[in-house]
Amino acid sequence: NCTFKTNRVPFGTKHLDAVLCVPNSGEDVYTAVILTHGAGGDMNFKHLVSLAHALASNGFLCLRFTCKGLNLGYRVKAYHAVWDYLTSLKKFTIKRVYVGGRSMGCRAAAALARQLSEQTKDAVRGIICLSFPLHPPGQTHAYRQRSEDLQALPEHTSVLFVSGTEDNMCDRGLFDGMVEELKAQAEVFWLQGGSHGLTVKGRSEDFVLNEVNEHVITWMSKQED
């Protein structure tokens, strides 16, 4: 249902490896999604590949990329380079861009969305946060600092959180309180029994991935209306 195209995105004197997933529908694509991975792994993490397939199958362009740096500021700069690259592609008429990722990747996406929103109102339509790492395991005091970028997002931004109820980096009480304080329009999908890696004991990984993907697609379709 989609065509893969490997890309090398300019980033200072380096390049970032990226893959563009293009819908085969033959229709013009107006909405694009950028995704990246957590602190470990790369853009070929199974969850990102699965979601990219699902997005392209539903008519959304998806660009996922690898950035190995563990410094958040460095990650945000890399994300900005990818956003610049995507929005400059002449082949597509991109009118709406969503940014997202899993764990550290969605922290970088939120930070970029905050930066861009301070410059241009419609730079980012929404953010997809898979397993937002509200705090390190056992260090719930860090949640305020980890959520600063989310708190600063403007009202017209939409955010989807997908988190597991057993995620040891996301205390549910603190998380629910944080979401209530957001100015942005937030929606939360709690995966019952889900870990930080969004795995659920007793359920197949593919089944869980399909459930997560369906929620992302449904949420995006609502934003498009």
From TrEMBL:
> Mind telling me what this protein is named?
Testis expressed 30
Q: Which domain of life is it from?
A: Eukaryota
Q: Which PANTHER family match?
A: TESTIS DEVELOPMENT PROTEIN PRTD, TESTIS-EXPRESSED PROTEIN 30
User: Gene3D superfamilies of this UniProt entry?
Assistant: alpha/beta hydrolase
Give start and end of each KANL3/Tex30 alpha/beta hydrolase-like domain.
Answer: 31-207
Family annotation (Pfam families):
Abhydrolase_11
